[in-house]
Structure formats: structure tokens, C-alpha cells
Amino acid sequence: MISELDILNSFQHLVEKNDDNLVVVGSGDDAAVIKSQKKDLVHSMDISKEGTHFPENSNANDIAYRSIATALSDLAAMGAYPSFITVGLTSNKTNIKWYEDFTNGLEAIINEYDIKLVGGDITFGDLNICINVFGYPFMKPLLRSNAKPDDLIYITGALGKGRKGLIDWKNNKKSKYIEEFFRPKVRFGLSKYIASFASSCIDISDGLFKDLGAICKLSQVGAILRYEDIPITNDINDLAYGDDYELCFTCGIECEEMLRNKGLKSIGKITEGSNIKLTKNNKDINFKKTGWDSFY
Amino acid sequence: MISELDILNSFQHLVEKNDDNLVVVGSGDDAAVIKSQKKDLVHSMDISKEGTHFPENSNANDIAYRSIATALSDLAAMGAYPSFITVGLTSNKTNIKWYEDFTNGLEAIINEYDIKLVGGDITFGDLNICINVFGYPFMKPLLRSNAKPDDLIYITGALGKGRKGLIDWKNNKKSKYIEEFFRPKVRFGLSKYIASFASSCIDISDGLFKDLGAICKLSQVGAILRYEDIPITNDINDLAYGDDYELCFTCGIECEEMLRNKGLKSIGKITEGSNIKLTKNNKDINFKKTGWDSFY
Questions:
Q1: B218 near B146, Cβ under 8 Å?
Q2: Which residues have CB under 8 Å from A204's CB, separation 6+?
Q3: pLDDT tens sequence across B143-155
Q4: Across the interface, which of B41, B45, B133 has its CB nearest the CB of A34?
């Protein structure tokens, strides 16, 4: 039987790497002390559970990477860059190799985004990963509540990649999309780019319709989407599936040319009212028939 | 079947109470934004699991209160006052009353210590509460690593109260100690008092011997404890049991009179070397016979 100490030892070198000026007191004391950055702190928490957020028998390296990436995506959606994270790991795995793999995934993502692991906790039980992510705004925070009628709607990449990746993984099929599901890229680059002009932003974790719906609800507006302009991977259900971690953002029409030069084309626009309409070549598509009204 | 929305609705009023200047962006967006206090941030995370950290069939109100109190205790041990928390709740309860009770416990403790709930996450699964607590130092952080030979050792209250409370609860016995187990008081008052002069501090969550052992290990010192001066509730095993959430701290001999006037009497002193010795009326007690060497 492995002990908590064995597990902690496999993580220790990650916490000890905090030899810069961010972490004043690190591992080994009652609490971590993080140097004030004199900026507002942006925080989000995400719990990832085996069987709910990732399939059973997922690779531990991927579990760590994905759990953190999906949490970091909330910072990108807020127009914030990441600084440090904490990891609360509940696990029933009894093989030290599993913890070493988990640590490798953790190390890969904190190195990729240059963030620090400042603390955490480990306990025994059904696999459950509670990630807290912390960062600071690139400019001002990008809210969900500030979209205005006639603003254009954008997404930062194709929908349905994660969905296809999960299906391919379940079918034991070799596919580039598997990485899209287990190791999604967090859109910090585009978040920084749009931070000065976007009127609202959200990440597409629950599906475009539900997430754009959250922007509409909080901004008290409606929206019209052009199906033919939405990049998808599989079929129309990609618009409702989620697990994409692309950003959906809105901005005034004056940004259209600049964004086109960046390779981004709007997928619709914000309207008065509270409805979200989907059109295909200027004809309404009935949501009921597509099956994704249930998400709204 | 209750929905996630039903559960969130039972918490919502707590997050919406953040109408002061601390929380710039609260519930409903991708992340919370917390106003910079221009002070170093002190952070700790604690996972509490049913069957491990509290018994099955515990009252949901107590579960919430205790999970947060035990996490806050790490801030007190660090010489820090609390400011805000996040709650990651994994629960398999299907009765909305359970969530209302949980919320009441949460509300009681955040009101008691004047702290804000800034965010969290909820998912379905075996009961597991992941609490993140955040605060700021009263003065400088109180570390575990700064005890010096000849420093005196203090604890802020009797040991074994939580232990007795849990036994009494299991035996359905009416007892004032049950509250000590389920709703421990966090020693912020004494933490503030000692912040300017204590050389080291830890909270007694794992038992005096193990926790004082952590101070000794990190300070590279030993200790000698006088059993007759240690306030206990049950028997000698109180020294190793944990669940007390009193503080154990050290300070120079020049503080002795001041602390005596405050009602605090030292229980031993720091020594050179690396051993922890227990004496009773100047005679050594053999740890092996007491059964608590296994904790060290």
C-alpha cells in the first residue's frame, strides 16, 4: 500500500520549483504566502470527476492536464492571464506510477503556461480533482454582461473537436482529435488580443448555445447565428455539445476588419430581445428539430 | 431528482451578499475578481471527506461548518486573518433539505468570521468538500521553521476535546464536547496576539506530537514536553490524537511573564538536537509504551 508521503514525494519537486519572487512561503508550512502583485485577483474553481468530466481509464497524465486546462479556460474567458494554481486531489489509485503520471501531466501544463503550483491537499476516495486557478486581468475583466445589440459574435476555433476526440478515444481510433479532448489549448493569446475591445466573453465549455445564452441572459439581449459561418467538426450538434474551450466573444462592428485580418469571421450578431435564433442561408432553423433546445 | 440549479439556488444568496468592495465581479461570470489588498496573500486548501474527516450521517450544517473551520485554522496557524473562501462541493445527496442545511452551516461560519464566499463548484459524487481559504498576515507570516533552542512551547487550549466529542457523538451522549468536534473555534484572536513575538506556530490538527514534530523538523531543533503541564481532556493519547485546532507556538523566554498574565503556561521548551522528549515530574516517559511514537 502506498502512503500519503509516497504520493506527496512525487509532487514535491513541483512545489519546490517556486524559487522566484511569487511564492514567499511554499510547501511545508500551514499555508502558502503569495507575494502581492498589487492587481485585482481573478479566481476560478473547477471540479473534474472520473466518469463525469473525463472517462474511466483515462491516462493520469491526461487527467491532470485536462483538469487544469479546463479551469484555466475560465481565466482566459475573463480576459486574465494565469499566475498560480492549487490542486485538491482525491484518489483511490494504489499504484505509485499513477501519481507519477499525474504529476507529469501537472508539470507539463504548469510549464506550458508558466504558472506556479502553490499548494493543495491529497485524500483517499473516488477520483476527484478540485483545481483552483488564479490570475490577473490583461486589461479590464471581460464580463458576460456587456454585450450590446448589433455587436458581432465570434468564436476562436471550430466546435466539436473535443466531442470527436472523445468518440475516437472510445472507439480506440487513432485521431488528432483525441488530444483536443484530453489536452485542450487554452486561448490566452486571443484573450489578450481581444481584452481591449471585446464587449463580452465566455468559454465554450457547455456548448455554444448554452454559453452564448449566458452572455445574452446577463447582457439582456438576444442573438442571431448564421449556421453556414460557424466552423464545426461533426454536425449541427457540435453547436450544443461543449468540451471545446474555445472563446465566444462579442465586439462592436468597428472591429470587424481588424478581426478579419486576424483570420476571424463573425458567426452572427447580438440583437434586441431575448431570443437566440439560428439561420442557415437566411432561413430559420427550428431548434426543436435539431435537438439542442434542451440546453437552453 | 434535484437539479444543479436547485442546489445553486440554495447557495446564491451567500455569493450575492458580496456587495462590499472586496469582490469586484462575483457569481455568474467565468471567474470572480477580488480587489487587490496590496498585501501578500495567504492561502490554504483542505479536503474533507465523509468517513475520513467527519463520520457518516453527520449533520450537513456541521459538515459545512467543520470543513471550513479546519481550513481556516491553517490561516490562524500562519498568523493570518481570513478574507474570503471558495467551496468545491461533490455530493451524492438528493434531498434539497441537505443542501439548505449545508448552506446554513456555511452562512454561520462566514458570518462568524466576517469572510466572503467568492466562488466554487458543485458536482455529483461521493461527499467531498474542497475548501480554499484566503487571508492576509496580521504582521509577518508565522512559520514552522523559526523555533530556537530555549524557546518556550505553548498551546492555546486543552487537547482531546474533539476526540471526546466524536466519541460522545458516536455513543449518542449529550455532551458539550460534540460541538468542539463539529464546530471547532478558530484561534484568530490568539493568532493576532502572538503574531508580533511568536518564533513559530502550527495548528494541532494531527496531534501535538506530530505537529510539534513538524516545527522541530523544519526548525532543526528538538523539544522537551512536561506532561503535567499539558491540559488534556481524556488521557495521554490526547497528545497524539489531533482534531483539536488549538495552536502550538514557541517564543523566547522574555515573553513568559506576559503570557502568564494572559493565562498561558508553557508546556515545555525547545532544545538542541532532533528528539522530542516527554517527561512527567522530571522523569522520562517512554513513547513506545504510550503508543504515540507511530505518529512521529
A1: no
A2: A155, A159, A211, A242, A244, A245, A246, A247, A248
A3: 888 899 999 999 9
A4: B41
Are the beta carbons of B36 and A31 separated by less than 8 Å? no
Q: In sequence order, which residues have a C-beta less than 8 Å from that of residue A103 and are 6 or more positions away?
A: A10, A11, A14, A64
Query: Which carries the bigger pLDDT value, residue B7 or residue B219?
Result: B219
Residue A30: strand, helix, or coil: coil
* DSSP E strands, chain A: 23-25, 32-34, 41-49, 80-91, 116-124, 128-137, 152-155, 200-203, 222-226, 247-251, 268-271, 276-280, 283-285
List B92's β-bridge partners, or say none: none
What are the CA-CA distances from residue A138 to residues A77, A148, B15 (Å)? 11, 22, 25
pLDDT, one tens digit per residue, over A6-63 is 777 777 777 765 556 666 666 667 778 888 788 889 999 999 998 888 989 899 999 9
DSSP designation for A197: T
CA distance B293 to B290: 8
How far does A174 lie from chain B, in Å, by closest CA?
A: 31
CB B45 within 8 A of CB B130: yes
* ipTM rounded to 2 decimals: 0.84
Q: Which of A34, A45, A78 sits opposite B86 (nearest CB)?
A: A45
CB A229 within 8 A of CB A256: no
Q: Could you give all domains of chain B from N- to C-terminal order, each with its CATH number? A: 4-137 (3.30.1330.10), 152-288 (3.90.650.10)
**Is residue B250 within a helix (H) or strand (E), and if so which, with residue range?**
strand B247-251
**How far does A23 lie from chain B, in Å, by closest CA?**
9
Give B128's contacts in chain A (Cβ within 8 Å): 90, 123, 125-126, 128
Q: Record the pTM.
A: 0.88
